[in-house]
Amino acid sequence: MIVLNVFLVGFLIVCAIAVERTKDLLSAVIIFSAYSLIMSVLWLLLKSPDVALTEAAIGAGVTAILFIAVIARTERMES
Amino acid sequence: MDDIILRTISRLIIPFIEIYGVFIILHGHVSPGGGFSGGAILGTSLILYTLVFGVEKAQKKFSHKVSDIAESGGILWFILIGLVGIFVTGYFLTNINAGFPIGEPGLLLSAGMIPLLMIGIGIKVASTMITLFHTVIEEAHHGSA
Amino acid sequence: MKKSVILLIFFALFILLVSSLFTMPIENSVFAPSYNATTRYYIENSVRETGAINLVAALITDYRAFDTLGETVVLFTSIVAVVSILRVSKKTKGV
Q1: Minimal CA–CA distance to C73: which of B125, A70, B83?
Q2: Which of A77, B23, B48, B99 makes a 20 to 30 Å CA pair with A18?
């Protein structure tokens, strides 16, 4: 179990750095969505299913869709 | 997006997502979940409907008027439940002392005002998600710019 | 020069934070600082006082219900701000 935890936290850090480094905002939103899914699995491993449910629905679903809707109205590339 | 596969699959799957959301809201005091997560799932199902069938058809299902009523109704329902406590005991948002039936712990009809409050929060969160998405999408759809 | 100083400061901070990690109590420990009298009171009395077997639901909608009302007001305020700026109505359609 602890190996899985360490692997997930490592993936989380990689995702967080990748979101900050990418110039393409659409890719950044999708990486951020992956970050939220990993975070949801981590909440489940920390024995809090309530937060995991909310994180999966809001973090990976609604936030990504709202960001994509805003990107569709503005520019895709970071200047 | 006019795609027959997408339309057929989402017509099949959207009722199940909505039933799951309602289940999570109503069972908030018995199993993990509650108003926020269930409302977010309900909102996501209607966002999927908007993405597949377009804004015009979704506006017929969830118009501006319904959105206004749900937005203010959710929060007014919450305050109304709290005011019952004020009139009976003198304290805002009182559960058992205000006379809400507690029932047997573990059953669906138990825990006094908690399921009622969960329904209010669920309506509020779901309509917030849908209204936010519709408002951002619709101006891009028939905006003048 | 400036960059290396910043890097050094961040590295020192990193070492400090990681070293404090080893003094934390292990998971589910009785000696963890978050397990105090308040937690014990909720675990022992929440079913009797609220009737909900989900402790989280009992906390956010009974003991801390006023907090939840505040969260709902925050959602309401945000949606009012967004709608008042962005909504397309019949009056403003041609603008």
Answers
A1: B125
A2: B48
Residue ranges per domain, chain C? Answer: 2-85
A71 is written with which tokens?
């990107």
Chain C residues near residue B74 by CB distance under 8 angstroms: 72
ipTM metric: 0.79
B78·C69 Cβ contact <8 A: yes
**Residue/partner pairs of A5-12 with CB below 8 Å, 24 or more apart:** A5/A42, A5/A45, A8/A38, A8/A41, A8/A42, A8/A45, A9/A42, A11/A38, A12/A38, A12/A39, A12/A42
Domain ranges of chain B: 4-142
Q: Three-state SS for B8?
A: helix
Structure token pair of residue B94: 């009182």
Q: Give the residue among B6, B111, B130 at the shortest CA–CA distance from C49.
A: B111
Q: Name the residue among A49, A62, A72 with its Cβ closest to that of B129.
A: A62
By Cβ distance, the residue of B37, B129, B132 closest to A54 is B37
Phi, psi of B144 (to 5 degrees): -80, -25
State pLDDT tens for residues B19-70: 999 999 888 888 888 888 899 899 999 888 988 888 888 888 888 888 888 8
For residue C16 the two structure tokens come to 């400090």
Q: How many C-beta neighbours within 10 Å does residue A3 have? A: 7
